[in-house]
Amino acid sequence: MITACSRLRPQLPRHFLAGVCALLTLPSASQATTTIVDSGGFESSAGYTIAPNSDALEGQQGWVTTQNNAGSATVQNTVFHPNDGTQAVEVVRGALSDDRWAVPVGPLTIPNDRLVLVDWDMAVPATGAPSGTGPFFGVETYDATSGFNVLGTLGVDGTTGDVMYQAQSTGVLTEAGMTVFSGQWHHFQIRLDFGQNQYQALLDNTALVSTGFVDGPSNQFTDADIAALAAAFDGNSQNQTGTAYFDNFLVRGVSRADFDIDEDVDGVDLSIWQTAYGVSGAADANLDGNSDGADFLIWQREYVNTPAPLVSATNAVPEPSGLALVLLAALCSKVRIR
């Protein structure tokens, strides 16, 4: 959830069924995807405007924010993903700033046969600091239905280039073992598994880590926040400024077995499983890091039975202005550090 005093706890860094296709007669595919938040690439065609009419992300297309007045998120057309449109969001972190932007939803009750996927493209120019940790740019996911529980977090330290995720229980930002080059665009994804109460962090479609939900079990989803924070709790990181660019922000509820994420579970997904079996995690339906017989059984079950739809606990998406007041009530949640 959005809060000016984060629940984020920063840290100091650093062949099965081979003939199955021949044996199956495939009926029509089952529908598998529910769009939760689609930024439309922050393009003008999706309703996002830039100066002189507007440029602040807040107030556009349902986005709300809490911030310490030192950071900003603006829609601009100077830096954007090279393959997708001509607009993106520039996020600037100021010294001692702790800022978030999100489109609140639901709360949504997530069935066990669904995953929530948060996708975005991000480029993080290096701060130029000679050493130490710096600002963290990325996405946090929350269940704010009872307290402000973090589900999972993924992003980049703007000084070191380290890809970082939030660890289970301790909540500290932890290096995922990969770095990105300054200013280069990369694709990030958080996969939330409410059946197993864990999340998987991916960089450029490669799984980096799977770990439990940061603040424990949940079956509710309320928001995925663009975040600009300190990557650690030391003075150097707290005072470090930086900039990042976000594009193609998308939140979806999908079937576990929709491996190509094309909104259905069909024979193409089975082919992906066959190719990935024992080789990669491209057909990893249960988020255990590999593609195996357990993933096939999930595909088989969901192919025959259309996954349950996502259900709003309130049967309506609250108005952003009203929900923002609720979110602002959490301005002083605890910060834990290592």
Automatic annotation (TrEMBL):
Keywords noted in UniProt: Signal
Signal peptide range: 1-32
Protein name in the entry: PEP-CTERM protein-sorting domain-containing protein
Organism: Adhaeretor mobilis
Taxonomic lineage of the native organism: Bacteria, Pseudomonadati, Planctomycetota, Planctomycetia, Pirellulales
